[in-house]
């Protein structure tokens, strides 16, 4: 079914007929599906419908911001397995349940190259420079961020997939997805990555006992200096001032560059709390409602213009 709403409704209607043992998909859409099932059948958690549900295989985005709200839908613990796949090929997967990273698949028709994700190789918009340095797997270093170039026997040649990864174990090719080449903020050298943002959101979820299933951040000039604005999706009650102060504090702890710039050029941090439905409606209007689509963590350019117009008028 091409229509995502039709697909979800059909799943909900047949939910009681199925003995679901595992679910595979992007966290946001799987969570939405389970919420709809729980609401439809007036149960306390998804295990009252699917008692044998025991494994969730996820990928595409970091699971950190979703985990707390996801677990509220469960009646018992389950096993989480992260994988890393794309239209171009299967890139990696977790070898063990509690492994920190995923192991790249280096023997399955993909030849990898790794471009250090820094100012030498990428411009301020996240575009790769013509003379960018590309390293082979035996040349990478532990703890550094890289963008991936894929070469496949299907004809892809040095394709920039758009993800950034960090090697946690060079010998075993274990990596962590840290963000996207175009989803970062560095207006004045704060070098704020999606990984930093995800960590701050996860901490906020736990501290305030809330669920933040989606968020996005933008940066802009402000009073001769610069500012960030966070748009937070939550249907829970939380004070906006307390939430942004907490997020700002956490980012200062985990990112030294951000902490430094918050004392100089990055003078202000703003927040707007919105219902989750706002984020979903924006994706629907863009024709991006569905399991293969993810809400951008950083808003720039035309996307930001459409977002501002949507918040003001409900249209794009």
Strand order of the largest sheet: 1-2-3-4-5-9-8-7-6
**Count of DSSP helices?**
8
Q: What is the number of strand segments?
A: 14
Order of helices and strands: HEHEHEEEEEEEEEHEEHHEHH
Mean pLDDT: 91
Q: Judging from the principal axes of the Cα atoms, what is the shape?
A: globular
| Main sheet specs | 9 strands, mixed
For the record, the count of structural domains works out to 3
Query: What are the low-pLDDT stretches, counting only 5+ consecutive residues below 50?
Result: none
Describe the protein's architecture and organization.
InterPro entries: GH3, GH3_C, GH3_M. This is GH3 auxin-responsive promoter family protein. There is one protein chain. The chain is an alpha+beta fold. The chain is built from 8 helices and 14 strands. It has a 9-stranded mixed β-sheet with strand order 1-2-3-4-5-9-8-7-6, with helices on both faces. It has a 3-stranded mixed β-sheet with strand order 12-13-14. It has a two-stranded antiparallel sheet with strand order 10-11. Strand 7 and strand 8 form a beta hairpin.
């Amino acid at each position: 079914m091409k229509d995502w709403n039709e697909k979800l409704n059909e799943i909900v209607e047949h939910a009681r007929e199925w003995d679901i043992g595992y679910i595979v998909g992007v966290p946001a859409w799987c969570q939405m599906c389970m919420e709809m099932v729980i609401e439809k059948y007036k149960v306390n958690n998804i295990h009252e419908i699917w008692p044998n549900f025991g494994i969730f295989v996820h990928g595409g985005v970091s699971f950190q911001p979703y985990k707390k709200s996801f677990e509220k839908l469960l009646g018992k613990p389950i096993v989480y397995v992260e994988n890393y796949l794309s239209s171009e090929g299967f890139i990696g997967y977790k070898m063990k349940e509690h492994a920190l990273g995923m192991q790249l698949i280096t023997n399955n028709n993909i030849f990898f190259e790794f471009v250090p994700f820094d100012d030498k190789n990428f411009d301020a918009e996240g575009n790769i420079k013509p003379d960018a340095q590309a390293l082979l797997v035996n040349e990478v270093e532990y703890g550094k961020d890289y963008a991936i170039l894929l070469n496949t026997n299907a004809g892809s040649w040095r394709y920039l997939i758009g993800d950034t990864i960090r090697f946690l174990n060079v010998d075993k090719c274990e990596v962590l997805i840290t963000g996207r080449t175009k989803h970062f903020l560095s207006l004045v050298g704060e070098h704020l990555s999606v990984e930093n943002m995800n960590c701050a959101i996860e901490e906020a979820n736990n501290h305030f006992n809330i669920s933040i299933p989606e968020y996005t951040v933008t940066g802009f000039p402000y009073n001769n200096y610069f500012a960030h604005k966070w748009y937070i999706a939550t249907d829970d009650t939380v004070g906006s001032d307390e939430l942004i102060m907490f997020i700002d504090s956490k980012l200062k702890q985990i990112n030294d560059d951000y902490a430094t710039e918050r004392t100089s050029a990055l003078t202000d941090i703003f927040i707007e709390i919105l219902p989750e439905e706002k984020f979903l409606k924006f994706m629907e209007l863009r024709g991006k409602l569905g399991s293969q689509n993810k809400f951008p963590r950083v808003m720039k350019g035309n996307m930001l213009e459409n977002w501002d117009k949507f918040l003001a008028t409900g249209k794009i």
